[in-house]
Amino acid sequence: MPANLTPQYYEAERNYKNASSPQEKLDALRFMLAEIPKHKGTEKLQGDIKKKIAKTKSELQKASKHGPKAHSFHVKKEGAGQVALVGAPNVGKSSLVCALTHATPEVADYPFTTRQPCPGMMTYENIQIQLVDLPPVSAEYMEYWVPNVIRNADLLALIVDLSSSDPLEQLESTKELLESKKMKLVEEVPEELETFSIAHKKTLIFCNKFDLNSEMFDLMTEMIDDEFKIYPASAKSEVLLNQVRNTIFETLQIVRVYSKPPGKQVDHNEPFILCEGSTLSELATLVHREVANKLKFARVWGTSKYDGQRVNRDYELMDGDIIELHM
């Protein structure tokens, strides 16, 4: 039986052969496995790819055990989502992370202060969102592992400095540097990607130090193209910090859902976190596999339905829904 492999598969195969790091190999192999048609004619090829994936994972694990490269390829995700903060030297990323989280990255007026990833947890209402402060992105120097951390993040926050001599040029230079690392910054990731070799990263652009030069923000708003909307930010303004929190939460496109046992009160302190568009069936699976198998129906309390309305497995969950599962 012919394999009928897709052009995307062959492109991923070329990327695998040309990969310069174990992580790049692993990314390519995973895409190859996802693209390969699943039938008897490809069973041997699927098996070979799975063996290569296992071998590459082993290489990554060995690399993580040897000293300073332990953080080189991966920052463990925690909370409701992971946001990577990137920007040129001295744009104020570390100051923002300090103001938004309890993390304590080194903050100084000289460039390249941050040399390692510094994760911190940002509180948004009753959930935590992980922010990762990264070393600067610069044509002068960029840590070799930074692109891999960015690719793994759920969301990219690109920070520019309104007090700099040319923040618009700073923005374009940062975008170009990331594009040279095969990352395209977008407001929305397309549902269908034409190529595997380019990572499409959902991106927010924050104009930091708004308190020092608000006029420049207005000028940038007029000059920037329609590709992105820009947002003001300042580590010294609680109003703007709250706007940053809200913007990040809304852009992550997640919903908080609360599971209520029949006849009992709901606990609003520990919501289940799901992607927008998730269904009742997916929530049941998240609660427990047995619950998903035995689920008959549920009742929902929320803004989209009247209180206690009965819903089926295909019901699309909304942020703040209270769900009572019945088996």
What's the arrangement of secondary structure elements?
Blueprint: H1 7-18, H2 22-35, H3 43-63, E1 82-87, H4 93-100, E2 118-124, E3 127-133, H5 146-152, E4 155-161, H6 167-180, E5 183-186, E6 199-208, H7 214-223, E7 230-232, H8 238-252, E8 254-259, E9 272-275, H9 280-287, H10 289-294, E10 297-301, E11 309-311, E12 322-326
Helix pairs in contact: 1-2, 2-3
Description:
It is globular, with a radius of gyration of 22 Å. About 2% of the residues have low confidence. The chain is an alpha/beta fold. It folds into three domains: 57 residues, no CATH class; 183 residues, Rossmann fold, CATH 3.40.50.300; 73 residues, Ubiquitin-like (UB roll), CATH 3.10.20. Strands 1, 2, 3, 4, 5, 6 and 7 form a seven-stranded mixed beta sheet that branches.
Q: What's the total count of β strands? A: 12
CATH domain topology of the largest domain: Rossmann fold
Overall CATH architecture of the largest domain: 3-Layer(aba) Sandwich
Mean pLDDT reading: 86
What is the 3D shape?
globular
What is the radius of gyration?
Answer: 22 Å
SS field, number of helical segments: 10
Main traits of this protein?
single chain, 327 residues, alpha/beta, Rossmann fold, Ubiquitin-like (UB roll), seven-stranded mixed sheet, five-stranded mixed sheet, 12 strands
Write a compact overview of the structure shown.
With 327 residues, the chain is an alpha/beta fold.
